[in-house]
Amino acid sequence: MATYTYGGCIEQSYRINWKIKDVLGSLEFDLDRPWLPAALSGGGGVFCLNPEEKKKLTQVEMGAYSHLFAFVETFIAPLMADLALDSQGVNGEAFEALTNFASEEVKHIHLFREVARRVDVKLGFPLKLVTGQIEVAHAVLSKNKGAVLLLTSAIEWFTQHHYLSSMSQSDELDPLTREIFRCHWMEEAQHARLDHLEALRLFKDMTTVERHEAIEDLIWLLVAVDGLLEQQAVLDVANLSRHLDRAFTDQEWNEILAGLLRAKRHCFIESGVTHPNFLELFLSVTTSAQQARVQGAVALLLQKSPFH
Ligand SMILES: [Fe+2]
Ligand SMILES: [Fe+2]
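# fe (ii) ion complex -> structure
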């Protein structure tokens, strides 16, 4: 069972705390290397792309991958600032850990903004990326806070999984990409623990009606995430077409889109909601009927056709 503490998180966070200029350092993105590992790319099962084109696909996918982190951090930072107020004057360590958490997410937004700028410079054209993060943040923050925390927990645990399982040991991966996600991984480790502590705190005092609302809102949030992934997958195909300077037939376009969407759903939904540390939290705050309801909704999303 998890034994996280607010004090432990803030201590570890101060030990790690990096500066953006140190992360980006003197390295440049290398166009001869993949920018995302195969496990996170949609190119694997796509027959209409050759190996060189699949490598270029990872380059536009990484631009979208890092942008989607900045996108969700736009609601995570104010959520943490809001939760910190609950602890002000009540639990000093929680207040400090959560305000620091909010500040780290603001730093990550700045990091990923600079990453996006450098990606555009290296590719030689501006990547098309989903917009509307402020409007989405408002909509997300109007939902049950326990639901938003569960979604945030799933996201922050998958940052751990992605880096450890496919980036940390890859010799082939672009070194700057690996460094960016190594640094993000280190700070996110505390965030995921704080999500766990805060979700337990909120769910403990919820009525049955509020818990029901939290589960319905979690499903709404997962569907909203999926909507963003669908939009970005379409933009990724357009970005790839430009990067390759190649027009796709309708059949090729559809094949690439299906591969991208499958990979994005795996990255941003499936690898989060199946992470064992997320499940430990989720199972401890829900009934078996609620678990089945969420698992059923996730299963529907994962098998949804991109062409509806
Ligand atoms: Fe972050
Ligand atoms: Fe985070």
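# post-check
Residues 76, 105, 156, 188, 191 surround fe (ii) ion (ligand 2) (CB under 6 Å).
Residues 6-24+32-40+47-303 form a domain with the Ribonucleotide Reductase, subunit A fold (CATH 1.10.620).
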